[in-house]
Write a structure and sequence with these properties.
Layout lengths: L11 E6 L9 E8 L7 H12 L3 E6 L7 E6 L4 E9 L5 E3 L2 E3 L4 H20 L9 H11 L12 H11 L4 E2 L2 H8 L13 H11 L2 E6 L7 E6 L18 H4 L6 E10 H12 L3 E3 L1 H6 L8 E10 H11 L3 E6 L5 E6 L1
Parallel strand pairs: 2-3, 2-5, 8-10, 12-15
Antiparallel strand pairs: 1-3, 4-5, 5-6, 6-7, 9-10, 11-13, 14-15
């Protein structure tokens, strides 16, 4: 005989008011849905976890039906109210929009609530890419750093270059006192960068001093550009140029030209100095890497037997003798330049 079972589901609501953590005028409430699949003892534990993490109000609902995690915002821009609906999966993990947490992830949850309060819905739900920025924030940085540097740099103190660059960008440049002291002691910029974009120009100049440019979004603040010591940077930094979509011969046609070449009795620095004007694009040396690898182009003697070959190949063979290589890269605006590094 077949048996028919009738299940009655009783909804039990547990409410716990919680003191707000110091994070402005935002109010965050959490409604946590538990089902019959969840551990009955989880209710009190999640109340304590969410309380310790700093939610302003928590309701644990025992229900026969789970809900999809969601986030809604009401209130005003000055005093927003956020309502989170979360669910606990079969592994006991709390699912919230944009996050997954265990019962011991109090600090991780606290950061989640702080990001929600400081930066709104986008602070916890937007997909993050390079530099820990959202797609829109990354585009904001790219657009800003694609502006032409637009002023002469040769012989100018690095600190003065950075001050002037800061005036030409919408995003602010920031550095701590230790980095500023390092910038202040730097030698004047030896090369001309005014034809490059701000992003690539700054990345090259800063690398010479062991520094990097890092786009970042401090919690509750606007996107900014930080200058850090390369040894202290823990994430991505702004690159020195980008790999082009076009071929080297398209970007720098002179590199494909056939020439009669012979090099004898010259250093690498001297030989490249004679080639640079013929390349038709700016040439920059990776001084920091050369110093680290103890490579001095003024001390490297080079030679090339008489031959007819392409100009680009002449440069390649000379640089190879100095344990270096040259690459044609482009800046944020697509302007090509020749980057000599390892």
């Amino acid at each position: 005989m077949n048996k028919t079972y009738l299940y009655w589901f009783t909804v039990v609501v547990a409410t716990l008011p919680i003191a707000s953590i110091a994070r402005g005028d935002a109010w965050i409430s959490v409604e946590l849905i538990l089902t019959s699949q969840n551990d009955p003892l989880a209710q009190r534990e999640w109340l304590e976890t969410l309380s310790s993490a700093g939610a302003d109000d928590v309701r644990v609902v025992n229900s026969g039906r789970s809900k999809e995690p969601s986030l809604t915002q009401t209130g005003s821009a000055e005093r927003p109210r956020y309502k989170l609906i979360g669910a606990v999966d079969s592994r006991g993990q709390l699912l919230l929009p944009g996050g997954r947490f265990g019962q011991r992830d109090v600090s991780k949850l606290r950061k989640y609530f702080e990001s929600l309060s400081a930066d709104g819905t986008e602070g916890v739900t937007a997909e993050r890419g390079k530099f820990g920025l959202t797609k829109n924030q990354t585009q904001q940085v790219t657009d800003d750093l694609a502006r032409p540097l637009g002023f002469a740099t040769t012989g100018i103190a690095l600190g003065d270059v950075l001050k002037q660059a800061d005036q030409g960008t919408k995003l602010s440049l920031h550095m701590d006192d230790q980095v500023w002291r390092q910038v202040s002691k730097a030698q004047p910029v030896p090369e001309e960068f005014q034809t490059l974009t701000t992003g690539t120009a700054l990345a090259i100049m800063l690398k010479r001093e062991g520094l990097v440019l890092v786009p970042t979004k401090p919690q509750g603040k606007e996107v900014e550009l930080r200058i850090e010591r390369a040894s202290d940077a823990t994430g991505d930094s702004w690159p020195i140029g980008w790999k082009p979509n076009r071929s080297p011969s398209e970007l720098a046609p002179a590199t494909a030209e056939e020439i009669n070449a012979e090099v004898e009795g010259f250093t690498l620095a001297e030989a490249m100095k004679s080639i640079e004007p013929r390349l038709g694009i700016p040439v920059y040396w990776d001084h920091a890497t050369m110093q680290a690898k103890e490579i001095d182009p003024n001390e490297v003697n080079v030679r090339l037997a008489r031959q007819r070959t392409r100009l680009g190949r002449v440069a390649d063979r000379l640089l190879f003798q100095g344990r270096l290589r040259g690459d044609i890269l482009v800046d944020e605006a697509g302007t090509p330049f020749y980057w000599i590094s390892r």
